[in-house]
Request: fold
Amino acid sequence: MRGTTKGIPRLGRRAPRGPVEPSRLPLRELVSEALAGVLQRPARSALTALGTVLGVGTLVAVLGLAATASAQIDSRFSVLSATEVTVEDTGGARPDLTPLSFPADADARVERLHGVEAAGVSWPVRLDDPTVRSSPVGDAAAGGAVPVLAASAGVLAAAQPHLAQGRVFDRWHEATGQRVAVIGSALAARLGITTLDTAPAVFIGQHAFTVIGIVDGVRRKSDLLLSVTVPSSTAERLWGAPTGDRATMLISTRIGAARQVAAEAAVALDPAHPENFKPVPPPDPRTLRSGVTSDLDQLFLLLAGICLAIGSVGIANTTLVAVLERTGEIGLRRALGARGRHITGQFLAESATLGLLGGLVGTSLGVLTVLAVVLARDWTPVVDPATVLAAPALGLVTGLVAGLYPAWRAARIEPAEALRR
Amino acid sequence: MTAPVIEFRGVALDYPGPPPVTALKPCDLEIRQGEYVTVVGPSGSGKSTFLNLAGLLDLPSRGRYLLDGIDTAELADGARTALRGRRIGFVFQSFHLLPHRSAAENVALAMLYAPAQGHLGAADRRARAEAALAEVGLAHRAGALPSRMSGGERQRVAIARALVNRPSLLLCDEPTGNLDSATAESVLALLETLHAGGLTIVLITHDQQVAARAGRTVLIRDGVLREVAAV
Reply:
């Protein structure tokens, strides 16, 4: 027998007897015991927490990717579609009497509206012989039946074409009724037009038009690529007002102005008869975004929920096995003064710790997944901080719920029975 | 004469079955402070039943059990558990040490479940555990895991754990059952030293030589408890 540490009573000496107070296990000690229980079996703990890692990770990744994709859809939608308004010419009550409701200065009237960048009127020209040629006679350079589009200069400005060669016509060409045309690059190839240096012409029926521009791309109104586009004033003089298909106006607006412009366009065009026009605004981007993402959200949230449920069952199963394996330990703790509630608390704390650790690792992996995807797709990551903060808590709750039954079982084990094992 | 630590008054334990079994027939027993009592009997005779009742691990079906003069039948479960934790130290044949905890941590575990007034911080628990290990000759093994210790060392750790709360009673269930004779002798010598210091010990054994070393022996056979005259 060795000597004792100063101030600490020797073994075998009875402690002073007093009233019996119930045992107590402070929360700090409970957490410490739970951490010890988890960390002393690292491999098992890691495998047990894997289900929660996958569940929480999937949840964070799904919510992060959905938010990121929503922002991406919103961004693209705003730039392209949300800045475009079309106005249809309905002709009012008697469309047969008014083949063209748009006034001659329609472009200027609409462009005066706040938020409008460009606006123009166009209509497809109905021809008896729509064949377009690059020479007045012969078949060698015939482009075949090609749509002819009458358009004001504002249409070409609003469509934002990309020119392979030359230029587009402008208000001067329009005002002076010039016989000029802008054609698509595919049609130019069919007609054998390779350069504009020689001022080539195309013949629509018997009328010659000088090709001043070849377009190989547009941001709006893609039918420009497949048509011969001529000034609307020239077309009206040669072939008259629209017949059959009615005219439409294309308006390009600044971001956020489209719906307001759509509301004002009809009155601006003809204050006396706004009913002659039907503005078509872009769909509400919020509606579109929620429509696109809600289906995905539901699907992936369901997947994440299944992962969490599997993780929860995994923790419950492993904790239950641990209770059976550690029956002797439970008996010992009871012999040392632990109450049933202390045993319950310990197993609950252990499963909650596993859930929390799984939640933390899963959240990290989920955020890394979002980052990996946005880096690969060159997107902007959007992750709600509330998701990142709530996800580990969800893991903790999963662990707590999973530990309820095993902890209850552990507390019901009789100490005498447990110590016999 | 010292005060009684254990008082059995008509204590019996019945298992309802079926078939109903009386594991310990009504018995009276008084063990006073400072006594060293061995309980002997063949396997299945009721020794473990006696240990469970004396250790407050089980409740008697009949009779009254007073520990340190406290009628345990009148205690609520929480108070009975606390009484067990503070006033009884257990030493088991299979040691019951937590395999992933060091010797000092195993000893300190006994101080974890204390009433609010007597709750010690981790550092104090560690200091007391190391002091207890020093008293059983294991100061140098405080950081060792049970798997790295001999059987004798493990049982000494278990004894240190049982006594670190300075209980009224040390209940030993076959403490030398898993030890070779030399190691068993050292453990028994330690117990005798502790007894000489005033500790009350009740030791359950089937080994007559071990039983003979105590000042008093109680025999249990077929659930009947009776005193054995000193040899």
Q: What stands out?
A: Strands of chain B lie at 4-15, 21-32, 36-40, 62-67, 70-71, 88-91, 169-173, 200-204, 216-221, 224-228.
